[in-house]
Amino acid sequence: MKKTSNKIKTGFSLGLTVLLIAMFLPSQVFARDSLSTRKGTTLYPQYWTAYEQSYTTDAPISEARWKSNVDWVASTLLPYGYNMVTTDGWLGGSTLTNTNGYLLKYNDGWAHDWSYWANYANSKGLDMGVYYNPLWVAQSAVDDTSKKVNMLPRCNGSLRLPAMIWRSA
Questions:
Q1: Which pLDDT belongs to residue 157?
Q2: What per-residue confidence (pLDDT) applies to 123?
């Protein structure tokens, strides 16, 4: 009987404490007006990424699927504040590089390069992001002696490489 009485007292005390705290909480919450709190801020992107399809298939996204996803994000998610689309990983099929060893497009099988897709996304009201580390170097760039990879010169015929090298399979 005593245990039951203590449980009732503890429950009543806890309920009364919660009720008293709730009475003193503000009935509305306010946020200051800033770039971060305004609808449509470009301070932080709200973006869609191609990761899931590439992860589940362990393959790069096809250019046709990329286009349809950019179109879908523009028509479906842009009105809700999404302002960016981004590729994500699976760059093993990319071997075409500029003179500094940077990849020119997501995949060699794609007809269009980064610039084309950035312009396409912009035409839909979106920015384009690329999940890529500039310290990753495609093996094709390492193997090409005419490339000046990451602005590092060749010394005595060998290439001085950055700490991290991305190699295609």
A1: 43
A2: 95
